[in-house]
Amino acid sequence: MDLQHLEEIQRDCAQRVVKEDLFKDVRWVGGIDLTFESIKETPTKAWACLVVVQLKDLKPVYTEVVEGTVDFPYIPTFLAFRELPLMLRLYEKAKIKPDVFLIDGQGVAHPRGCGIASHFGVETDSVTIGVAKTKLWGVYREPSPERGSFSPLLYRGSVIGVALRTKAKTAPVFVSVGHKISLKTAIDIVLKTSVFRIPEPIRLAHNTLQRVRKGWLG
């Protein structure tokens, strides 16, 4: 496995990322999540889910699930090479393409500026936002405890994302630009789609996958 070559792919991807709003209206917001039969084993069966909600009331309007085999091992900072092939299959199968995709992972808040959310956005030419449960890269100060508060995620003096409090007195999520969106708008959309800590499209996709995985494993 030539990790140096994969790093070059990520750096090239980072150069193609657009960090400004290239859209007008947002009606539908989608969330993508993945789950695996075994996180530690490779290859392993995996499932990817897209849930699309209406932004105005967060009601789901479309759900799609695909399954497949993942044969790239889990290596930190190379998540896209493990998960992207199944995500692209999901994208191709989806009958509804949302105006914005929320991806469970990093956007530009990545050592080489191209996490899974950015990689997916560049590959599909879609508007994407990275929403991660844990910090991968950069430093930040804990935001104040009220909902909507955030603090910049910094790397070498540059803002690469934010730690955003989507629910009062809960741990923040880490939001970063994926592709074709500004950080300001990304924060706004994540807050508008969040009832609990995790934005509804991703949370609903996660819950769907837990039922699918449980049903398959019996």
UniProtKB/TrEMBL annotation:
Cofactor(s) required, per the database record: Mg(2+)
Annotated catalysed reactions: Endonucleolytic cleavage at apurinic or apyrimidinic sites to products with a 5'-phosphate
EC class of the enzyme, as a word: hydrolase
Pfam families, per the entry: Endonuclease_5
Gene Ontology biological-process annotations: DNA repair
GO cellular component: a single term: cytoplasm
Residues binding Mg(2+), per UniProt: D33, D104
Annotated site residue numbers, Interaction with target DNA: Y74
Keyword Hydrolase: yes
Function of the molecule: DNA repair enzyme involved in the repair of deaminated bases. Selectively cleaves double-stranded DNA at the second phosphodiester bond 3' to a deoxyinosine leaving behind the intact lesion on the nicked DNA.
Family per similarity comment: Belongs to the endonuclease V family.
Protein name: Endonuclease V
